[in-house]
Amino acid sequence: MLGYWDPFSEMSRIQDRFFGRPTQEREYQFKPAVDIFEDQDGVHVKADLAGVKPEDIKVEVENKVLTISGQRRLEHEEKRDNYHRVERFYGGFTRSFALSDDVSSDEIEAKYENGVLDLRLPKRPAAKRREIAVKAQA
Predict the structure, then answer these.
(1) For residue 5, which of 91, 89, 99, 72 has the smallest C-alpha distance?
(2) What is the DSSP letter of 106?
(3) CA dist 62 to 68, 81, 129, Å?
(4) Is the pLDDT of residue 34 over 80?
(5) Alpha-carbon distance 94 to 76, whole Å?
(6) Where are the beta strands (DSSP E) in 39-125?
(7) Which of 11, 34, 69, 122 could form a disulfide with 42 if both were Cys (CB 3.0 to 4.6 A apart)?
(8) More confident position, 30 or 67
(9) Which string of b and e fits 48-61 if b means at least 16 CB within 10 Å?
(10) pLDDT on residue 94
């Protein structure tokens, strides 16, 4: 149903290949984990966004591409020098996924609970097969 596509990662990979840039910058970007599954009613997308406020999350659909973006902010940024260890990633993120034709993008629902963004993408009603009677003309 959905395919993963990250245009920024792809552009960085191409630049690294031609210009020999180190990949260290990409390794420290916040990239939330996403689960995608399908049932009879539609497609479900669950993204781990712990520490991200709902107002900092943006969900968009354009040209059959679902994009989840946002910002995880560092709490108490002024005390960062006193940290012994910082393992959680902060900053902006973007995840994009191609949608199939049978997803109804007008009816997508988004819920955010306990740090998990839950998107429900319902399927369009399948076109029913019908038989058309052929009438003979006299």
Answers:
(1) 99
(2) G
(3) 12, 41, 29
(4) yes
(5) 24
(6) 42-48, 57-62, 65-72, 91-98, 109-113, 116-122
(7) 122
(8) 67
(9) ebeebeeeebebee
(10) 93
Instruction: Tell me if residue 17 falls in helix, strand or coil.
Output: helix
* Total-model pTM: 0.66
Residue 103 vs residue 4, higher pLDDT: 103
CA–CA dist 38, 1 (Å, integer)? 8
**Tokens 């900092």 belong to residue:** 56
- Residue 18: which pLDDT band, with cuts at 50, 70 and 90? low
Residue identified by tokens 């993120």 is 93
Strand 65-72 to strand 57-62: parallel, antiparallel, or no bridges (unpaired)?
Answer: antiparallel
Helix/strand/coil for 90: coil
CATH number of 3-122: 2.60.40.790
Domain-wise residue ranges, the chain: 3-122
Q: Does residue 17 carry a pLDDT above 70?
A: no
